[in-house]
Amino acid sequence: MNVSTVPSSQSAQAEPVVSKLQVDENKLPSGQCRYILLNPEIKGQRCACVGFTFNRSLPGVTCDCGHLSCYHIQSAEPPPDKNEVDTLRRRIKLLEEQLDRENDGGLGSALGSVVRRLGDLEEQVEKNRDETSQEVKGCYRNVDRMWQSVTQLEKRQVGYENRLLMFDERLDGHDDTLHGLGDRLMEFDEASMVLEERVDALEEQESPRIPFRQRRRRSTSGSEDSKNCKRAVARRYLPLGDHDHSAAARSASTSVSGSRCEVPKTGPVEVTGSWTVHISLLPTASQPFPFEKDTNAYKRCLSRGLHQMVAVGGTDGESFAKAVTKAFGSLLRGRDWVPLQARLCDAATLQGLPMLRPLDPALIGTNYDLDFLRKYCAVCLPNGKVESMYIAMLSDTFSWQFLRRSPCYLEGLEECWAYDALLDPNDNFGDSNGDVGDGRSAGEIVPPLPSLKRPASEMSRTPSLSSTSANDGNDSSRQKLPRTTCIQAAMELRRRGVETV
Length: 501
Fold this sequence. Notes:
Layout: H1 8-19, H2 82-104, H3 106-206, H4 210-237, H5 245-260, E1 275-281, H6 296-303, E2 307-312, H7 317-332, E3 337-339, E4 341-344, E5 354-357, H8 370-377, E6 379-380, E7 386-393, H9 400-405, H10 465-470, H11 488-496
Parallel strand pairs: 1-7
Antiparallel strand pairs: 1-2, 3-7, 4-5, 6-7
Helix pairs in contact: 2-3, 3-4
């Protein structure tokens, strides 16, 4: 029987028509109601009416459940047969027995073991959780003790800093004392030299014999050498302030350089076969001094392979030229190069430092063998072995832009290519095309010297002839004012630009 889900409102509209007719109750259904309730919480639930009961108080053919007769089954279901019920009971009993056997045997025992293992695992997890909590608490206690130790160390550090300050003050006092002793020692040396000069003068006046005076001069020169040696020892043991460390380092490098360039009287050591030398390719041949070690200019040249230790296969000039071309071929690119002359500077403030100058034009293009290099170009050790050399291109120069774009030779020095006001005052790396001569030469790092001309206010008047003749015997005549500008600063700047490899 098809059951339609017509709402009760529609059935109520049809009741007046049905109520006028005579209803035959024998033809009415007697089965259960199949009306699907319109409950949004539970979908598909049917009415609970189990049998149609005609409600005469309502118009139409309506059951007491409120639904029309069309929603009810025509006849009630017959009661189940007793045999079928017994058969169903036997089957249910057999299924229960089978389930008991399975529980006692395969699947049931497996499920039981799984349950037991789950229980053991839960216990183990709880135990591990307790142990972990205990370890975390122990870690927190250890961290607390560590912070207490850090606090104690900070307190002790304050005491140590105070003691270091006290020791620093004591060292400053000792430094001043040693400076005073050094000054007194210098005064004693100068006084002894003045006394020796006076003694020499008196001896020359009393004894006009030449042999005696010659012996006295030799003894005097020997005493002067001993005094100079004592003075050097005194300077060596004098404490150095912050402004004297560089001077001491320069004096030490001066003495080392002087000893390197002295060839022993017995002659240089004979070299057979291959030999090594440290060669520096300078950006320009007119550079008066090499770059100082660990400066930005030196690091830039080192990162691009301008400073290399070169192995020469023989003592002839061809072997030396091949070794240089092989080492610096990527930078020279077939251009002519020439070794530079390196000799010790004899200036008072730069004594002992390597000073570079271009090779004599008459010597360019000759055979650059080992003897030639020892004689004109190389810096030698005391035993005559060649230690270092300096070369440059004959007519071209390197710029910082070209070197920056050259292949990297030594890693780890890229920070030296950052902008440097001394090396890159007006350079723009983005505008250059990487040519060799593009931009300013890398060797031009010395700023122009300040003007040495004194203003008119610092110059003394030129005395006239009459005043000069009148004041010949007067010691109180006005002296010329000294110059306030000196080239010492520029000389020191050049001195700091020296490579000390």
